[in-house]
Structures are given as structure tokens and as C-alpha cells.
Automatic annotation (TrEMBL):
Region (Disordered) residue spans: 269-289
GO molecular function, one term: sulfotransferase activity
Cross-referenced PANTHER family: SULFOTRANSFERASE SULT
Name listed for the protein in its UniProt record: Sulfotransferase domain-containing protein
Keywords attached to this entry: Transferase
Stated family: Belongs to the sulfotransferase 1 family.
Gene3D superfamilies membership: P-loop containing nucleotide triphosphate hydrolases
Amino acid sequence: MSFEYIEITDPLYVENKEQTGEENYIMVRAKQYKDVPIKIPNWVPQAHCFTTEFKRHEKELLEAEVYPDDVWVLSYPKSGTTWIQEMAWLICNDLNFEAARAKKISARFPFLEIGLQSAALHFSFKDVKDMPRPRFIKSHLPVSMLPKRYWEVKPKTIHIRRNPKSVAVSYFYHSQGIHYRGSMDTFLRSFVREHQFYSPYHAHVIEYHELRDCDNILHVSFEEMKRYLPSVVRKVCQFFGKSYSKAELELLYQHVSFKSMRDNPAVNFENPKGPTKGEPFMRKGEADGWKKELTPEQIHMLDEWTKERVPNPEHRKLFE
């Protein structure tokens, strides 16, 4: 078996799992990780939070094919993933705005391991496998769980990160719109205990930034995109060897503006059952929106969590 499965015994999770809708969560640790080119001395992967569906698909995950002309976007959830996906797809496809609007991004840029979340979504690996090349692939997997071939092939990849307080707030509303039935405070306390899907958060980000000889990965942040969008666009264009005129780039900036993305049904996912409290997939798109959403006590809790999990001052800069 390539993974170790660990029951969550944390009293907070056990007490609230049925009420919050998280009763099938489990911690999963990779046992085969020698191919990951990481610089952290004596590194051993942490266990990450998934559902019990993971056990059914671990072979499909590990043996998923990876091609040299693939384009991957990797992130922890709610870090600006859809935003960078749309930008990357357009830059790689000659700014074909008509094609981008005509087809949902989930079809143009499918989510590799969504089948690990629910039995109803088990076709995700096949969907990616059957895509015409060059393929565009989204994933929230940590470095220790990427398909074996990823490290051999090293396809062009963008990794995006975001301030943990912004992630926490956005992740709560996103989860609430799908299945979560608890309060924000309960969610945040679970989040800092690393018992939300794909957690631990800090380890995910640090490990991607500690990879050795991975020039195939371009690192960007949500905050950088909010403040210096043209600069990020230039970096992404250079990364993929693309060049566009000033007028063409102005159209791209307009297309990937928050208002345009929020109003674009091709990228602004809608839950068919409707979100619990009417929150859209793209809510506010603010870099510091957490300041209006969190109490002083919650901010302190999240800040102390980051200090505890990230003792290295250089690593801590990743979470500012």
C-alpha cells in the first residue's frame, strides 16, 4: 500500500463531524516519496486530510499519465486557482476569448483528483486521461501525492499561494456552499487543527517552495495578482514563451478582472443545489477581506497558528 490511513481522533472533529457534514474525513500520508526533489533535510511528508474515497482511487492517482506538453496549476484550495487557470489557459491559447467563454473552465482545465472527494465524481481521472493534448490540469495535491510520472516529466506548472487568513475565510464560505453545516468559528478551529480537506496548509505551500531543480514551476501569489496584475501576466507570458501586443494585453487584463470573472459563467461555478447562504463561488476577490470577516480573537488564533507551524523566518514571508 502506497499510503497510510489514519483515523481522526481529535475531540473537536469527533464531536462535530456529523453536524458539520465531515463524517467521512481521514488523514492520508504518502509512504513512497523518494522521487520528490525536496531540499528540506530528513523530510518526511505529513498526513493530509481527505475523505475515505481516497482509498478507492490511490492507484489511479499514482499511475496517472503525465506528458511534457501538459500545463498544470497547483494550489491549496481557495488560493486564486481559478483566476490563474483562466489567465494561463488564455495565454497558452493565443488569447482566444471566444473559446474561453464558450466552454467552462472545468472542461478546459479539469480537476485531476476531484474523484477523491466523492463517489459521484469518480470519472475525474478518466476525464483528464481522455483530454486532447496539450492538456491543462488543475490539482490541489501536496508534493508527496502527485502522480509518479510528474517528477520524471516535470511539465510546465504554476503554483499559486495566498495569505492564510484569506484562505480560511474563503474556504469556509466555499465549503458552506457545498456541504459544510457548522459555524465559521467551528470551521476555523478545525482549520488550524489541519482537519479541513487538503490540510495541512502551511506544509503544502512550504514544500512547493523547497523543491530543488524545478524550473518547470512558476510561483505566484494571489496578493501579487491583485496588486501587480500586469507584472504577473508578463511573468506568465515569459514562462510559456508567449508575446502579445499592449492592446491584446489590455483585453486580457479586462477579461481576468474580478468583476469580469465574477460575471462570467464559464469560470464562476454554481452549485446546482444552491449555496447554503447565497454566497457565490467568487465572493469579493479582496486581498485583505479577512479584516472585515474575522473577529480579533480569530485573527489572533490564525496568526499564532502560522507562527507555530512556520518557525523559519524565510518561510514565514510566504504567508504575509
